[in-house]
Amino acid sequence: MAFSDIIPDLRAKLPQLRGRLLPNEPLAPLTWFRVGGPAQALFMPEDENDLAYCLANLPPDIPVTVIGLGSNLIVRDGGVPGVVIRLGRGFSEVAVEGDRIRAGAAVPDARVARAAQEAGLAGLAFLRGIPGAIGGALRMNGGAYGRETKDALIEARGIDRFGKIRVLSNSDMRFSYRHCSAPDDIIFTAALFQGAPGDPVAIAAEMEKITESREATQPVKSRTGGSTFKNPPGQKAWQLIDAVGCRGLVVGDAQVSELHCNFLINRGNASAADIEALGEAVRERVQARSGVTLEWEIKRIGVAG
Questions:
Q1: Which is nearest to 77 in space by CA: 20, 23, 136, 33?
Q2: pTM of the entire structure?
Q3: How far apart are CA 98 and CA 85, in angstroms?
Q4: Other Cβ atoms closer than 10 A to 265
């Protein structure tokens, strides 16, 4: 599917834009599942000022969607209308500030964990277990191995739909399990994390343990999207899925992982519709058997093919 080309009109309305602006750009290569249609317009801002200029001058009737590293994302087969924003090099700096770490929203979580380890800062090793970037960790209160983003964040910086820079404290974010209540229109650009003095060797060992655990229990080398469903209160999503016989379940070329049944995988030729239908089939079986309604953790965007 191809959208109408809105790039000439956008360039006329935003003549000072400096970042790349591409029409009908395929999004599948930018996601871990490797599925989905194009962005009507893909914008990769040069820096924070470029992003602010874009948002301040973009017509309000044009929808804006943000994607990160694509690790926790299904792009539907019809693609994403409007402007899709993907942060890149201008948002990829990491700086140690005493016992704190400042990181751009495009920085992979694992890279922040490594920077903290090299600086002898404990408390951020858990980021090694989150397969995404800092922007996604902020929006979803990403967590792993006993800690969540809320446990380490001091403040987040972002830009709202009007192009205004916003700085939110930890309490402003109003974190809950795999969720923050910051306004949906804010695009996070950076975060400041608190660490604590620690032994680099011990921190490295902790990170290695996390890496080994992930590789042993999760299909990290497959085309997957990470944990599919949130854990219901007091329960484990994978146990509920396993109990209704969904381990290995297939729809099209999408499959519930045999290794960890809260992971869906693309066996090679799955469509986004296959993956989403498989997830819905799992939800239906779990709800029918246990009465528990699983909530999607993976973000789904765009329109059906």
A1: 33
A2: 0.94
A3: 32
A4: 23
Residues annotated as catalytic are 178, 227, 297
Give the whole-angstrom CA distance, residue 43 versus residue 25.
10
- How far lies 48's CA from each of 18, 57, 83, 190, in Å? 11, 14, 17, 10
φ, ψ (nearest 5 deg) of residue 269:
-130, 25
The fold of the 220-301 domain, in CATH, is 3.90.78
> Cβ contacts of residue 29 below 8 Å, gap of 6+?
none
Instruction: Look up residue 230 and give its DSSP letter.
Output: P
With residues binned 3-state (H G I as helix, E B as strand, rest as coil), the percentages for the chain, rounded to 5, are 30, 30, 40
Indicate the class that CATH gives domain 7-89. Answer: alpha beta
Read off the tokens for 157. Answer: 């910086």
Helices and strands: H and E segment counts in the chain: 8, 19
Q: Where are the domains of the chain?
A: 7-89, 92-216, 220-301
> Could you give the residue ranges of the DSSP H alpha helices within 160-199?
170-173
| pLDDT more than 70, % of the chain | 100
Nearest to 287, CA basis, from 298, 297, 276, 279: 279
DSSP per residue, 24-49? EEE-GGGSSS----EEEEEEE-SSHH
Residue 78 in this model has a pLDDT that exceeds 80: yes
Instruction: Give pLDDT, residue 20.
Output: 96
Domain 92-216 top-level CATH class: alpha beta
Cα–Cα dist 262/161, whole Å: 34
Is the Cβ–Cβ distance between 224 and 264 less than 8 Å? yes
Beta bridge partners of 122: 196
The residues pairing with 223 across neighbouring beta strands, listed in sequence order, are 266
E strands, 4-111, in order: 20-26, 38-44, 64-67, 73-75, 80-86, 94-97, 100-104
Residue 237, both tokens: 């999503």
